[in-house]
Design brief:
The chain is of the alpha/beta class. It has 12 helices and 15 strands. It has a 7-stranded mixed beta sheet with strand order 4-10-9-8-7-5-6, sandwiched between helices. Strands 11-12-15-14 form a 4-stranded antiparallel beta sheet, covered by helices on one side. A two-stranded antiparallel ribbon has the order 1-3. Strand 7, helix 7 and strand 8 form a beta-alpha-beta unit. It is globular. It binds pyridoxal-5'-phosphate (PLP).
């Protein structure tokens, strides 16, 4: 794009975009610019039809028979295997059933079990709060066996102490979009004898991932963000093969039993990843997620990354030239260090996001002053970048963000 900042050039980029056809796979209002797929992904058209079929036929007609006849019972592992392909994990290493927070409990306990004698969960203060709460809760449950050590990002790169059992980090930071070097950090954890647990909530479907090659022993990630699984979609849990046999599920339940329908009073863990199930899986949510994942399996992640970098670069460039220094870039300037979101700071960020929403652009706000814009290459157009920058500069110039109606805080920001 030339320095002239011309909408025609953005239209031309859309015309030659190899992912262009994918927008039609989603239910999206043409007039709406949706830059919040990093929080809640859009609704795939296939999910509408699939859920109708699940509800009317599999549940409505099939009833209890569908656990066998429609292979519901296999869904957590089947969908896990599909997600494994998307994130570079192996068959039988991923299962899908709980929220990310619950999956973290299971991942942390599996990691601590696998490193007897080590007492520390190491993490950083910028981690997503649920990760910190869960780690604290796990440490409390395990009593004096385990403590949580919370470091600043720059301290992570010092040699690790030999008491660390698990290093737990979020790969792409939810506030800033900054991306850790997965391979280098996993290798440093391994060099110190620790295991590596990655939260991939802002990575899966956003950036190419090679969990196995890059040393993720354990991982979790949301199903409802870039994966487009639907509000509250189940998360995925990865436990690498080498850890599975010795790993215990801290929340053992009948669905993770080797023979649930024997109804034995003695718990015997299932073989492999299935032992990480607890109760009955949420079937409607799982099958909604599966239809979204099926869409992903036909998508080239390298092309997604290429478009993601192009969209975010154009946005950063546009904001710098159209909004001056009114919006401060919080995300890393180098795309190699960034996921698929751009975060900008503004003292009245909440009002900015609300005024933009009124102008047909949906981003979101994270306290205290962060405006987040998620660029999901499957359905974001290049012209959306142009139009967002235009509208953002108008919101800033006009001072519309100061209007009281844009400054009434809703529960969800
Ligand atoms: C990095 C990260 N981890 C965990 C969560 C929470 O996931 P859940 O609500 O599925 O427990 C989120 C939610 O936004 C997140 O961004």
């Amino acid at each position: 794009v030339s320095d002239g900042w011309n909408r025609d050039e953005f239209e031309a980029l859309d015309q030659s975009d190899p992912l262009r056809h994918l927008r039609d796979e989603f239910v999206l209002d043409d007039g709406l610019i949706y830059l919040d797929g990093n929080s809640l992904g859009a609704l795939p058209r296939a999910t509408v039809a699939r859920l109708r079929q699940v509800v009317e036929q599999e549940w409505g007609q099939g009833l209890i028979r569908s656990w066998n006849d429609a292979a519901w019972i296999e869904a957590p592992q089947r969908i896990g295997d599909k997600i494994a392909r998307l994130i570079g994990a192996g068959d039988g290493e991923v299962i899908v059933t709980d929220s990310t927070s619950i999956a973290l409990v299971k991942a942390l306990c599996a990691g601590i079990d696998a490193r007897p004698g080590r007492t520390v969960i190491l993490t950083e203060d910028a981690n997503f709060p649920t990760d910190l709460y869960v780690a604290g809760g796990v440490a409390e449950l395990l009593g004096s066996r385990v403590v949580v050590r919370i470091m600043k990002r720059e301290e992570l790169f010092r040699p690790l102490a030999d008491d660390v059992a698990v290093v737990m980090l979020t790969h792409v930071d939810f506030r800033t979009g900054a991306m850790h070097d997965m391979r280098a950090i996993s290798a440093a954890a391994h060099d110190a004898g620790a295991l590596m647990l990655w939260d991939l909530s802002h990575s899966a479907g956003a950036v190419p991932l090679s969990c196995m090659d890059d040393g993720a022993d354990l991982a979790v990630g949301c199903g409802y963000k870039y994966l487009n699984g639907g509000p509250g979609a189940p998360a995925f849990l990865l436990v690498s093969r080498t850890l599975q046999e010795a790993a215990r599920n801290p929340l053992p339940g009948w669905m993770g039993h080797a023979a649930p329908f024997d109804f034995s009073n003695d718990y015997a863990a299932a073989e492999g990843i299935r032992r990480f199930l607890t109760g009955t899986p949420p079937m409607l949510s799982l099958l909604a997620l599966e239809s979204a994942i099926d869409l992903w399996l036909g998508v080239d992640m390298a092309a997604v990354r290429e478009k993601s970098v192009a969209l975010t670069e154009l946005f950063i460039h546009g904001v710098a030239s159209m909004c001056g220094d009114a919006m401060e870039l919080l995300s890393p300037r180098d795309p190699a260090d960034r996921g698929s979101q751009v975060s900008l700071r503004h003292a009245d960020g909440y009002g900015v996001i609300q005024a933009l929403a009124a102008a047909g652009v949906i981003g979101d706000f994270r306290a205290p002053d962060i405006c987040r814009f998620g660029f999901t290459p499957l359905y974001t157009r290049y012209v959306d970048v142009f139009d967002t920058v235009e509208r953002l500069s108008r919101v800033i110039e006009s001072g519309a963000y100061r209007e009281p109606r844009y400054n009434v805080r809703a529960t969800v920001t």
